[in-house]
Structure formats: structure tokens, C-alpha cells
Design goal:
This protein has 148 residues and is of the alpha+beta class. It is built from 2 helices and 7 strands. The longest helix has 18 residues, at 31-48.
């Protein structure tokens, strides 16, 4: 199902570096996960205000759907939102778009399963209440599958 950008509240610019480009002239497929990570971290800092002293986050799984190549001089932004919240895991959706004269063109989508994690105890933990609440409120409760 195609992503509707109107479902997203958070977006951030992504800088394409020369080192991201492969021999064919477009962004290497492995770099997209770095773009997603960068956007996700900004989302947690700026929109969700994740308290890293309470619980960390680890990645359980990542999926990438490559739709159109991104080139070195493309201006891109990444949309980010929470799409599912469980007890200790939650899903983050990413959409990379190229800015064109005609508007935004979706180039790549991806989903990351994130796990609330206690690094000292070395185990998953329930998502902290404050962060759970902020994700739901920020990303439109009707658009989040809440499995609790």
C-alpha cells in the first residue's frame, strides 16, 4: 500500500554525502538504513523527547523498499512516524522523498522494528509510559496500531 505523506507529522532533511554514492552514480543501497537511522534519532529527540537514561532502543528488524534511485545532488527529506506500539517493541515507518520542481517524489520506504531496551540488564523492557504517550499523541492515535 502506498504511503500517504499527509499521515506524517515529522520530517527532516537528509544530507547526501559524496561517500554515499556508488560506482553507478546513485546512493548505495546500504546507506538507506543510515538515512533512516539519522531521521529516526532526530524524531526521537525532537518530537518524542526520548529519555535515554530510562530506556534505550535497539533495532530488531529493518525492511527497505527501493522505488527510485537517489542521486548525489538530489535534495531529500525523510518522513518518520510510529505505526505500531506493543509492550516492548514498536514499528517506525520511514519515507525518503526527493524534492522536485513538481513537489515531493517518494523514492524509498522502510520499516524498522524497534525494541525498548535496558543496556545494563541486557534485556528488552516495556516502552516507558511517557515515550509511549508522546508517540501516540504526536503520530495521530487513529493511525497507530496499539497492540496493548
Amino acid at each position: 500500500m502506498p504511503e500517504k505523506l499527509s499521515d506524517y507529522t515529522y520530517k527532516t532533511p537528509i544530507a547526501t554525502r559524496f561517500s554515499d554514492i556508488d560506482a553507478v552514480g546513485h546512493v548505495n543501497n546500504a546507506i538507506y538504513l543510515t538515512y533512516f537511522e539519522e531521521a529516526r534519532l532526530k524524531y526521537w529527540r525532537e518530537a518524542i523527547h526520548w529519555d535515554w537514561s530510562d530506556a534505550g532502543v535497539i533495532v530488531g528488524r529493518s525492511e527497505v523498499n527501493y522505488l527510485k534511485p537517489i542521486m548525489l545532488h538530489d535534495q531529500i527529506v525523510c518522513y518518520v512516524r510510529t505505526t505500531r506500539i506493543g509492550d516492548s517493541s514498536f514499528d517506525i515507518m520511514h519515507v525518503l522523498v526527493r524534492l522536485t520542481e513538481l513537489g515531493e517524489e517518494i523514492c524509498t520506504t522502510g520499516k524498522t522494528v524497534c525494541i525498548s531496551y535496558d543496556y545494563k540488564a541486557n534485556k528488552s523492557v516495556p516502552i516507558p509510559h511517557a515515550e509511549r504517550t508522546r508517540m501516540i499523541e504526536y503520530d495521530k492515535p487513529g493511525l497507530i496500531l496499539n497492540t496493548n
